[in-house]
Amino acid sequence: MKRNLTLFFYGLMMFCTVNAQHTEKIYLSGTGNDHTVNWDFYCTNGMNAGKWTTIPVPSNWELQGFGKYDYGFAKDSIRGKEEGHYKYRFKVPANWSNKQINIVFEGSMTDTEVKINGVLAGEIHQGAFYVFKYNISKLLKYGTENLLEVRVSKHSANQSVNEAERKADFWIFGGIFRPVYLEALPNTHFERIQLDAKANGLLSGKLAILGNADKLEVQLYQKNGAVFGEKIIVPIKSNTSTAYFSKQFSDPKLWSSEFPNLYTAKFNLFKAGKVVHSTAKKIGFRTIEVKERDGIFVNGVKMKFKGVNRHSFYPSSGRTTSKKISIADVLLMKSMNMNAVRMSHYPPDSHFLDVCDSLGLYVMDELAGWHGSYDTATGTKLLKEMMVNDENHPSIVIWANGNEGGHNRDLDPIFLAEDFQKRAVIHPWEVFGGFETTHYREFNYGIGNYDHGHNIIMPTEFLHGMFDGGHGAGIEDYWNAMWQNPLSAGGFLWDFADQGVVRTDRNGEIDTDGNRGPDGIVGPYHEKEGSYYTIKEVWSPVFFEKRAITAAFDGVFNVENRYSFTNLNQCSFEWELRKFGKHQDLKTGKAISPNVKPYEKGKVKVNLIANWRDYDVLYITAKSPGDELLFTWSFPIVLPKDEAAKLLDKEANTAIKSNETDKNFEVSANGIHLTFNKLSGMLEKVANNGSSIPFNNGPVLQEGVNNFKDFTLKKNGNEVIIASTFNRKESYNTLQWIIYPSGIVKMEVNYFPSAYFTTFVGLNFSYPETEIKGIEYMGNGPNRVWKNRMKGNKFGVWLKDYNNAATGEVPFKYPEFKGYYSNLYWCKVIGKTHTFKVFTDREDVFLRLFTPKKSKDTEWDNMSPTFPNGDISFMNGISAIGTKTQKPETTGPMGMKHIFYDFEKEPARALNMTLYFDFSDELAHQ
């Protein structure tokens, strides 16, 4: 009792208002996973069943060690039997006896029976994700203790609810997972306020009123509290239950994802000159319009939605979240330069919509329904509950009636009837209402629709990001097509974060249910995968045209403004010149922000210092009007041949020794001993002052033929050359080794791929994975790349420790170590016993480090993350990766195989790979 009273008075202080004419509120539960209140609890089945104990509210009971974990599809063997029984004792103030008291549940999974002092508060509520309430005024004891009893059935007695919510591709939970509170209203009060604030300044309202009032007043306030516009005064006739108003305001600041300007509308209801009820709503002036065969327009501007699907989810608390989590989610989305989010596949917490309003994200709000739908009676009730709770949020620009076949068409007209703003309704995965929203269509299918279709193209799910596939892999091709075509309204990636849940029955293990849950751009705790950075660059509203930095560089970059409402002169641009190596140096400055209007092109001019060519790279950073980082682009100044020349500048006075045996060529220089196979030309052994370095068995051509033949050894001045003999028919691929007195070894391979279409091409060496400690390299990093995911990295010098991390799996450690790296200049292989360096004078070389673990794909094996043989490779072309639903080649041109030369044309052009190897001891100490 003492505990309950303490919590009661704490809640009273925190959540009650001092003026009786306002809605007063007392929380019976906590407000989220960061603030809970213990209730008495009994679970009927599964973990810790059959005994009364306590549980935090709000929560999902599985995450608290009760019941049974289930990932979707209603596969629970004890469904229908797993129930949670809750009890909580509370008091209400004695002076509430003359008010209407509602008990409000913001979300309970799934069928919820509520009793107050042993009496049913109303019919059992069916449907998990909706705010519902009961008028319990006549059931309460005022000024003394009351008993709340709640019985929650994890699975519904209504089969349509199970079809819509439980037989779904996401974790299913049980419990009171969102807050519970009491609200006290005057007997005369606002029951519902529906608003529509247009971009032209016209504010309209429809208000449902319970009781007798004679006047309504509405006043708008700016963010700083200043009054905005004139007060709206509306006389109310006697016995009127609905009031309307319409008022024109001058020059309001408009709401958009770029400028989320909000106003506070305060409503006062009068009776005989006295205020009987006061409340407030946040509003944003904006106009949403769908133009047939054209697009979705916000404030008169056609939108390209850069969106993602988002579950209400947190690993340690399931569907119970908090405003802190909502803020973190929205900030992370906006940091990827997204402007939209789809609620998948149910309405979110109210605080998430509040955050979308205040920080700026366009929202597609969705009535639950996966491959099944609610029956009409249930769906009508739940739709109205969703509408009443969500309708006034300016962030909501479109409604979705279920998902992927979970569409009850009888509900479509109810959306229109209930929504005062008359926003459009879509059916995700269908062609409906002038929209083509089909999911996971191949790139060429999409292009066919763009070129030949007539609907607005807006896939509500595309590039299914299972493990490391999809998302960043393929998005550049898709977005280029979406950006260029006027029928495209953009799309929504699947999905935001891995659905990895903490298993209280498995010592806290994070479980994604195999390959069903690891679909996120970020990990369960928002760990950033490589695709995060690719999306950030591809979706940057400031687009830099590709260019090379040469001696003729004049500091000018071509840019495109891909904002909808922001001029680039509202953004800021910074530059940095950086020099790597022993004598590191950097210079920084600011560029003048150009006057480039939305959707137009212009130039950014960087006024560089006189000796800019002495530096290795130029970075340009763009920031938004709110100073958020949009992206940093890299423009290398130094070329690989320049860096190689510096690394080759190494003196040695020792003479080279060579020896020829029946099987091998043996060469020694400056303490380095090398053994080459006479027949194949392979590097078989490397030793440094007698200590073996386990780097050997190369080069082995990948998707090419090792037909190097007839090797000879000769001396050329102070160098030793081992070279194959070219024969057009039998040994058309050639290999040459040059050993310098410094001990540095040059390898040059000229080769032809073995097929017209190739997955990858390059050459491999052996190096035991058990020997590796890390890698330092100069190139693009720090994340690995795929053929169809090249963007998002930064040119620099990167030091990475070895890890065996796999994307989307425990321990969710990024960046991964194994994989492909682009734009290699040099790499230092850091072993447990030796360190050596490999560098090149050629551009566009890829480094491959070992073979990442192949995660469990679906039965279609669409991701196909293929890698060469060997352990460490140097590649002219690398492989792409697919998605859960698409092979790599169907994600666009970048996902297709390579074509490097034409068999039919003469002369055929060989590929070249030139590498230098430095096996000297001194590298370990640099």
Automatic annotation (TrEMBL):
Report the InterPro entries cross-referenced here.
Bact_Beta-galactosidase (IPR050347), Beta-gal/glucu_dom_sf (IPR036156), Gal_mutarotase_sf_dom (IPR011013), Galactose-bd-like_sf (IPR008979), GH (IPR017853), GH-type_carb-bd (IPR014718), Glyco_hydro_2 (IPR006101), Glyco_hydro_2_cat (IPR006103)
Domain annotation Glycoside hydrolase family 2 immunoglobulin-like beta-sandwich: ranges: 216-286
Q: Which UniProt keywords apply?
A: Calcium, Glycosidase, Hydrolase, Signal
Q: Which residues form the Glycosyl hydrolases family 2 sugar binding domain?
A: 53-186
What is the enzyme's class at the highest EC level? hydrolase
Q: What does the record give as cofactor?
A: Ca(2+)
Instruction: Return one Gene Ontology term, BP aspect.
Output: lactose catabolic process
| Reactions it catalyzes | Hydrolysis of terminal non-reducing beta-D-galactose residues in beta-D-galactosides
**The EC number(s) this enzyme carries:** 3.2.1.23
Q: Which residues form the Glycoside hydrolase family 2 catalytic domain?
A: 289-414
* GO terms, molecular function: beta-galactosidase activity; carbohydrate binding
Q: Which GO terms describe its cellular component?
A: beta-galactosidase complex
| Any matching Pfam family | Glyco_hydro_2_N
Q: Which domain of life is it from?
A: Bacteria
Which first-to-last residue range defines the signal peptide?
1-20
- Family under the similarity heading: Belongs to the glycosyl hydrolase 2 family.
| Subunit-structure text | Monomer.
| Name of the protein this chain belongs to | beta-galactosidase
* Lineage, top ranks: Bacteria, Pseudomonadati, Bacteroidota, Sphingobacteriia, Sphingobacteriales
